[in-house]
Amino acid sequence: MKKLITLIGVFLFLSIATSYSQNEAAEEALEQTGKLTETPGNTKTVLTGAAWFGFSSQKDDALKLNFNTYGFTPVFIWKLSDKLFLESELEIADGNIELEYAKLSYSLNKYMTIGAGRMLTPFGAYGTRWEPAFVERFPNSPLVPDDAYLPDDTHLYFGAIMGMDVSGDLPLGDLKMNYSLFVSNGPRLARSEETGELLGGVIQYENLDDNNANKAIGGRIGFFPLSNSSLELGVSGNTGKVGDAGDAAYKDIAATALAVDLNYTKAIPSIKSIISIKSQFSSLNVDKANYALSDSTTYTFDNKLQSLFVQFSFRPANVDNKILKNIELLYRYNSLTPPKDASWGGEPITRNDIGLCYWLSWRTGLRFAYEFTSRKGEPKTNEFLGRFVMGF
Amino acid sequence: MKKIYLTIVILFTGISLLTFLNGCATSQAMTDKSGAQLWGENCVRCHNTPSPADYSDGQWEAIGMHMRLRTQTLSPDEMNKIVAFLQSGN
Predict the structure, then answer these.
(1) Does A176 touch chain B (CB under 8 A)?
(2) Measured between alpha carbons, how far is A196 from A218 in angstroms, rounded to an integer?
(3) Given CB atoms, is B75 within the 8 Å cutoff of chain A?
(4) Contact B76 A110 (CB under 8 A)
(5) Are A77 and B63 inside 8 Å of each other by CB?
(6) How much is the pLDDT for A112?
(7) Least CB–CB distance from B59: residue in A46, A174, A217
(8) How far is CA A14 from CA A4, A165, A166, A269, in A?
(9) Of A57, A184, A242, A344, which is the most buried if we count CB atoms within 10 A?
């Protein structure tokens, strides 16, 4: 509670101290751009989002070809005034309906906005920026624990949190930085949906209700070291205690996640093309604890989980050929290192994705990829994936 | 002890932010960037650059704020320039 009060105090202190510089520049910009004030009505609304349909194919699989993924993700956007803003996304995908996020924002000044609600976790860059279906060039996502390789979904990488944040961007001369700091319901030790038993150190984020008095805190700080904003480097972290209230065995056990992300995207005039390199390294460390086995004995292990992806894309977007300019070539290296000694862990997994995207418009396209997955002690698997994504 | 560390980190972050706000400003070169240049430099970092005709003037205002708050990579002034550029194409 003291932590929360301290955080709120700091937020208010920052808000008051910075509000002096807010309106002058914003009003000046509005006057200069003129047209912004010409649109009638204060409330601006947009219904946007994406829909997709996809398939997978494995040579050795009996199904050969499986149309196995579909989704519709409408995003509702309301700009109520220059300060008030509401955005929400409903995700209807693969048989599930979920409110992905619903975030209410109030801009205190040009450098700071307060947000509250269910919001995308500011952890790394993938979940908040590169994950939307019309943005993701591949038909699949990077390899993270949320995939089927590990039990349960951690929801750390693509998930949402319930809480409050402050965010904004700051000028640094020719350079820029941005920040997002949050306090939210914390992570918890995941339990089996069938039996209610602990899943031996698997962590569950995205909690609509908290399980203890400790709140998670964290955030992301990004930095643009080049004046043309082509390169962004980000550092993220969050920490929180995971034990249920009243459970003495786990009351001091904390989960701490760290991430480093990079995005370099640049149009190269000499080759009439756009190149992009995106990467994110993430780690999740959970304090050592004893977990029960089915025979009533306990065991402990080094609960560390790491994932990395590096992707490269090349699109000759500015050549004259009408077909060639819509083709984007893709490659992504993925690795996932679970805790080796966990009952749900094991050997590292490596996946290479080679892909191609054909753009029908700036937000609609066909995506194809070939996955090569390998894990020590297991046969290698190859899979061909396709997806048609329509942004709207 | 952890609370003391936490408080120090929070205060350090707050003071750093205040220092940035008071001591740093956008350079003239950055201020002089046009809406078209900002549109070309920033949108493409995550997605393809949109066509002005895809949304109405009012919708561009909402989308501009959505992008600014979603990514925290654009100042209000920069976003207003991009929105005005897109509106001018309608």
Answers:
(1) yes
(2) 29
(3) yes
(4) yes
(5) yes
(6) 94
(7) A46
(8) 15, 13, 10, 42
(9) A242
A245–B contact, CB cutoff 8 A: no
Report whether pLDDT(A151) > 50.
yes
The pTM score is 0.88
* Domain residue extents for chain A: 2-22+84-345
pLDDT for B9 equals 67
Q: Does A116 touch chain B (CB under 8 A)?
A: no
Give me the residue from A17, A29, A40 closest to B77, CB to CB: A29
In a mutagenesis test of the A interface, which of B47, B60, B78 is the best target, namely the one with the most A β-carbons within 10 Å?
A: B47
- Over residues A235-289, the pLDDT tens digits come to 999 999 999 999 999 999 999 999 999 999 999 999 999 999 999 999 999 999 9
Per-chain mean pLDDT for chain A: 89
Domain residues of chain B, as ranges?
27-88
SS3 content of chain B, % helix, strand, coil (to 5): 75, 0, 25
A2 vs A293, which has greater pLDDT? A293
DSSP A249: G
pLDDT for A21 equals 47
Look up residue A377 and give its amino acid. G
* Distances in whole angstroms, Cα of residue B37 to Cα of each of A178, A269, A312, B32, B46: 20, 14, 24, 10, 16
- In single-letter form, the type of residue at position A75 comes to V
pLDDT attached to residue A379: 92
For the residues A2-20, what does the mean pLDDT come to? 55
Question: CA-CA distance, A61 to A58, in Å (whole number)?
Answer: 5
